[in-house]
Amino acid sequence: MTYDSLSAQVAPHLRLLVALRATGNVTRAAELLGVPQPTVSRRIAALADALGAPLTVPDGRGIRLTRAAELLAEAAERALAAVDTGVRLAREEVAPESGHVVLGFLHLLGRTLVPTLLRGYRARYPGVRFTLVQGSRQDMLDRLAGGELDLALLAPLPSEAPSLVSAGLAEEEILLSVPTGHRLADRRQVRVAELAEEEFVLLEPGYGVRTLTDELCAAAGFTPRIAFEGQESDTVRGLVAAGLGVALLPRFGPGTPAGVAEVPLNPPASRTIGLVWRAGEPTTPAVTVFRDHVLTTAGRK
User: What is the pLDDT of residues 120-167, one digit of tens each?
Assistant: First the structure.
C-alpha cells in the first residue's frame, strides 16, 4: 500500500486519534466525538489493520496509544489545527463582520488600553467575537508563536523573535512606587542606585516589567533584594502600600493608588507598548481589520 492510499484511509479518523490520545478511554473518546462506542472500536480496528500495527494497548481501566499511534496522533493534532485555521479563514472571508479575534495582552494593559481599543472597534463591527487572554510577556510570546493567539499587546516589544512582527504604539514611563511616608516618597526624582538597600516587590520572571527592573538595577550596579514576587501589578502595589517593599512600575493612572507614592526616575525610564503578530501568515478579515484599527488608533498605521 502506498503512503498516499494509507493517508487517504487515515485522514477521516484523525479526530479519533486525537480523542483517544486526550482521553485514554474508548468510551470517553466516543462521547467526545458523539458516536457510539462500537463505532469507535470498529474504526480503531480498521486503522490498525491499515497501518499494520496495533494502535492501543490496555493501561489500567483505560488504554494508551502505542508508539506508532502516538506519532500519528501528534501529526493529526498539527494537521487538524491547520485545517481548523483554513476553515476559519474561509468562513470569515465570506462573513468578516461575524469573525473571531483571539487577543492576548498583559494584565496591566487591561485597565484602560484594551477596553478603549475594543470599544472603538465594536462600535463599527458589533458582530465580531473576541477571546481575551491575559498573562506574562513570555506566556503571550509563547502562545502567539504557537498559534494560540492572533495578536498580542506587549511591552517591551520582542527583538529576539524573527518570526514575529511588531509595531510600537506608545511609550510608557516607569516610576518608583513606594509606601506613602517612605523616605523617598516626597522626592521629585530618584536614581535607581539609591534603591540598592531597599527590599523589592517584583513581578515573577517572564513579565516585561520584571525584566526591565532587573536590567535597571543591574545597570545601577546591584541585584534587587526580593521580598515578594507576584503575578499582577495590582497585587504588587498592594504589597507596596502595606510597607512590604518598593517596586518599579508603570504609572497607575488615572489618579494615584491608595497608600502608594509614585516618584519619577533619574534618568527617566520607559517601555514601549506595541502590537505583535506572526510574520508571513495569512490572517482572517476580522483580525486584519482589528489590527489596522489598533495601529490607526495609536497613530502608527
Answer: 999 988 888 899 999 989 999 999 988 899 999 999 898 877 889 999
Place of cell 497501518: 51
The bridge status of strand 151-154 relative to strand 129-134 is: unpaired
Contact in structure between 47 and 55 (CB atoms under 8 Å)? yes
Yes or no: say if 292 and 284 are a contact pair by the CB < 8 Å rule. no
CA 96 → CA 57, 124, 282, 283, 292, distances in Å? Answer: 46, 12, 14, 11, 14
* Single-letter code of the amino acid located at 19: A
Q: pLDDT digit string (tens) for 15-37? A: 888 888 889 888 888 898 898 98
d(CA 85, CA 136): 25
